Structure formats: C-alpha cells, structure tokens
Amino acid sequence: MQSDSIGIARLFSEIASRYDFLNHLFSLNIDRLWRKALVRSARLRNGARILDACTGTADLAIELGKSCFACEITAVDFSGQMLRLGREKVRKKGLAEKIKFVKADVLDLPFPDCSFDLVCIGFGLRNLMDRQKGCDEMARLLKSGGRLLVLEFSPFQNGYLGVIYRFYLKNLIPILGGILSGSAGAYNYLASSIAGFLKPEEVVLMMKKSGLTEISLKPLTGGIACLYSGVKNPIDRLL
Ligand SMILES: C[S@@+](CC[C@H](N)C(=O)[O-])C[C@H]1O[C@@H](n2cnc3c(N)ncnc32)[C@H](O)[C@@H]1O
User: Fold this and answer.
1) Residue 95 and which of 61, 85, 123, 167 are 20 to 30 A apart at CA?
2) Whose CA is nearest to atom 12 of ligand 1?
C-alpha cells in the first residue's frame, strides 16, 4: 500500500506509459462508456469552466472537450509523466486550445474559491490520501449552482458478479498488470485501493459533509463503478 502522496505520484509515473492500454484492456473498454456517461450527465453549457481533477492521461478531459463548445477545461494531476502523455494526446486531438494542464495536488489546488461551473474526478478519488479534504477542496472551487461529478469504482459486490469481480481484481489484475507494465506493486495497489474504497453510501455522506446537495448516484455495469453527482448552493442558481 502506498503511504503518501509522493508514493502515489511516483507509482502513476511508473506505469504511465502502459496506463491507457491496461486500463482499456482490464475494463474491456467499458471505462470509455463510463466516462461518456459522466459527460452526458454533466449537461455542459457553452463556455463552461470545467476542472478535471486527477486527470491522468486526460481521457475524461478529452471526452469533455469533444462535447462542449467554447468551454475551458483545466486538467490537474500531480504525476508529471501522466500529464506529459495527456498533453500529447490532447495536442493530437486538436483540443489544446480548450484543455490546459496544471501540475498540482488535488488536496491543495491553486485556484480561488468559486472558479468552476463543473468539477469532475474520474477514478481519482480513491487515490487521494485524505478523501474528505479532496472533496472539500473540489466543492470549494465550485461556483454556486455548480456540480461535482465523481466517477469511481465501488468495493466488492455480493452475489455471483461479486465473486467473479473479486477473483479478477485480486488475482488476475495484479499478475497480468505486473507482467504487462513491469510493476506488480502498482497493480496490487490499484486492486487493493478498489477493494478498500468507500461504499456508495459513504461517498454520498462525504459529499454531504462537503456541503453539496441534490446528491444522486448511479451504479454502472452492475455496480462495478458508480457515478455521483452533487450541487453547490442550488438555491443561488434560482435567484
Ligand atoms: C487512476 S488514475 C485516473 C486518471 C483519469 N482520470 C482516468 O479517468 O483514467 C488516477 C490519477 O490521479 C492522480 N492523483 C492521485 N492523487 C492525486 C492528488 N492528490 N493530486 C493530484 N493527482 C492525483 C494520479 O497521478 C493518477 O494520474
């Protein structure tokens, strides 16, 4: 288990070059559908200011960038290697005007309060050393009426799907991930970070503690992942 932020940043930098390939392979490409589900639920308006926290290699930022007109996306991560690959992908897709990258820690972001209409985090929340602090920080950056969208794996389920999922996560992913990425430790960590993550109702409680309301959650693919949504000061939106 990684015990500090520097260890997590180092781990992602270590697997960065294989990250996209293994992500799509292990999820059988379903991760792409989950990100699209997030973008659909964002109901983006023209000119929106968007933060993609824990952007990694920018898959979510790219999906957002393809779906909005004249929006400004700030993509943040603390792994230099992940950002480098993300920046390259964004340039190749011709989205460099819309998507800007910032190297920063999501627990302490260098932006003023109320800067963004939408804050998203895809498969990043479970990696934060202090998840409540991260959630508070993302809520702080939202404008009144702005929305936080969290896409994250859920811990193991009960039933048949749970048994298969547990076997896949605990046995196949660490072995295959280790062989294909050259870093067995990283894929052991990724599997155990999913197993040890919060239950959906605990994520909802955390979002409430950050002051968000109108919280909803949508299980995806039998509950393997979940999409959460919360709004900051929705009343102000109506005034
Ligand atoms: C599993 S990847 C997710 C990447 C991407 N959002 C996606 O949808 O594939 C998690 C990312 O979060 C980043 N990360 C973890 N903790 C962070 C923190 N405290 N501040 C900034 N980035 C962080 C890692 O460097 C990594 O790139």
Assistant:
1) 123
2) 54
Ligand 1 within 6 A of 128 CB? yes
In the chain, domain spans: 27-156+198-234
What integer pLDDT is reported at residue 174 of this predicted model?
87
Distance 58 CA to ligand 1 centre (A): 10
3-state DSSP of the chain: CCCCHHHHHHHHHHHHHHHHHHHHHHCCCHHHHHHHHHHHHHCCCCCCEEEEECCCCCHHHHHHHHHCCCCEEEEEECCHHHHHHHHHHHHHCCCCCCEEEEECCCCCCCCCCCCEEEEEEECCHHHCCCHHHHHHHHHHHEEEEEEEEEEEECCCCCHHHHHHHHHHHHHHHHHHHHHHHCCHHHHHHHHHHHHCCCCHHHHHHHHHHCCEEEEEEEEECCCCEEEEEEEECHHHHHC
CATH number of 27-156+198-234: 3.40.50.150
Q: How many A from CA of 237 to the centre of ligand 1?
A: 30
How confident is the model over 204-232, as pLDDT tens digits?
999 999 999 999 999 999 888 999 999 99
Residue 122, ligand 1, Cβ within 6 A:
yes
Mean pLDDT, residues 63-83: 96
